[in-house]
Write a structure and sequence with these properties.
The chain contains 3 helices and 4 strands. The protein has about 100 residues and is α+β, with helices and mostly antiparallel strands. Strand 1 and strand 2 form a beta hairpin.
Amino acid sequence: MIDIKIENGNAKMIETVVFKASNLLKIQEGDLEYHKNFGIDLKRFFDPDIQIQNKTFEAYSLQKMAQNGINPVALAIEKKTFEQIFNYSVIAAEKGGLIK
């Protein structure tokens, strides 16, 4: 699905799944009253008492996207001195032909 976003006064067309993926990665799981399973467990990954490898977060985030109908087609990791930046490329997952 395509949506229109205004950026610097200019209208741009963008896939709405991009916003869904962005929201998923920013929302603490359980915070939304209407959709308790949406989001990721940010508290676990930012807990200073627990050390979790970046690969674990990478796999977890990709799994949560797939569970929410977001198909991550690529992940580029930019490594900086004290941080890693995850750049996801996503498309909407097709639901046709699924057997339940």
